[in-house]
Structure formats: structure tokens, C-alpha cells
Amino acid sequence: MHYVSPLSPAQQDILRHTAMRIVTARLARSEPALGQEVVQYLLDSDTHMWSMRRSKTNWFRAVGCLSRAATLARWFDGIRAWTHPPTTVLVHVLLVAIVLCPHLVLPTVFMYAFLILALRLRYRVRVPHNVDPRLSYVDVVSHDELDEEFDGFPSTRPSDVVRVRYDRLRALAGRAQTLLGDVAAQGERLEALFNWRDPRASGIFLVFCLFASFVFYAVPFKVIVMGLGFYYLRHPRFRDDMPSVPVNFFRRLPSLSDQVM
To answer: For residues 199 and 254, is the Cβ–Cβ distance under 8 A?
Structure first.
């Protein structure tokens, strides 16, 4: 039923707190009795409440997940910079093999995944994980941040303390606001190409699309992929340190940032 007629976020929140109160009342009559704060912690019913400690935890969790992608990007950048020429030559050979035999791409990827999982089987965790204080940043949290986390809603702290916390939150939200503005600007620049906000840029893009359609129609796709791959992996001696023409062209496209007050 919840798939056919889904509950709204407000209704889900009401249902969650109602279930929490029922469980709290039931466990309060048990022996030994459990307090309300213990039940709330076990049910994790206040995850939507603001906490500087949890924000740091989630941020470093995201950084930890993206660290492998960053390591792969640095490795590929080293290949593109020819820091280890034999590896770069091997990547060229791999590119040719992928272009000439594209039907082997997916079997190779899944075989690599199978080998990685098989090698990591012996290192699997054999006991359940407990609460990690280091991951939760409990050992480095300040007294003020801990007091803010256990504060109720609405706040019961003095106005001076609330003002300091509000200013700290404004500084943190300002960074998120700037990041959201940058992300929105990239999408607006892409829309500007098709909306003729910059007639010269849209005209250049129009001619490029016409030329690209003829090229992709006349030249085999394998030749195009191989040519682009070899061009991207060319030696730094044949590469300029300035930003590429497509990146420079995209950055100069207009956005709505200049219209925001």
C-alpha cells in the first residue's frame, strides 16, 4: 500500500514518533525499566536534528567513499602525464584492444570484480561491528557542540549561546550556499547554449554540431574513439599548460549568477 499511496515526509515523521512513544511506554513498564532517552537513542528517532558532530561524521564518510575515486583520478592523471612511460604505453595498448574488441569490455570488468571479491574473501569481517567512537568523532567533539546536540527543540539555552551557535551555522551554510550556486551555474551555462543567451557562443556551437554530425556520419566510430584517446593521452611535450578550448569556452558562457541579488 505504501507504494501505491505513499506517505508524505510529514506523515512519516508523525508515524515514526508515534511508534517511538508506543515503544517507550511499553519498555518503561518492563523490568528493568528503560528511560525515554535510551529508547530514542536506540531507535535513532532524532537523526534529522542538527548536530555539528554528525555533520562532520557524514562529511568524512563521504570523503572516505570518494577517496578511492580520487586515487584513481590521480593515477590516471599520472598516466596522462607520462610519469611512468611503460604504464602509459600499456594503457595505449589496452585502449586499442577495447576499441577493436568492445565485446570483451563487460566480461573483463566482471572478471576483475570477481577476482577482487575472491581475494578479499579471506579478509572479511567475522564479528559484528560495534559503535565506533572514532568514526562518530566522539573523542574530538567540543563541549559546546555536545551541548548543542543534546539541546531540545526549541532551544532552552541563553540567547548569547544561541547567537554564537547561529553565527557558526551561518558560516557553515555560507559555504554550502556557494557550492550550490556553482553547481547551478554549470547547468545554466549548458542551458545558455540552447537558449541563445550568448548569440556568438550559440552560433559557434551550432556550426560545431553541424560539423560533428558529418564527421560522426563519415568516420567510423572506432576510429574516432581511438583518435580521441590517443589525443588525450599525448605526451606533455605536445600539450599546453593553458586550459583546453572546450573548458575555456564553457567557462565563458553566461549564467544567472549576475542576476541574483
So the answer is: no
List the chain pLDDT tens, one digit each, 261 residues: 567 778 888 888 788 878 888 888 887 877 787 777 777 767 766 666 777 788 888 888 888 888 988 999 999 889 988 888 899 999 999 899 888 888 888 998 899 899 999 998 888 888 777 777 777 777 777 777 777 777 777 777 888 888 888 888 888 888 888 889 999 999 999 998 898 988 999 999 999 999 999 999 999 999 999 999 999 888 888 887 788 888 889 888 888 887 777
What size, in residues, is the chain? 261
Query: Which amino acid, residue 215?
Result: V
**Alpha carbon distance 150, 145 (integer Å):** 9
The three-class DSSP label of residue 233 is coil
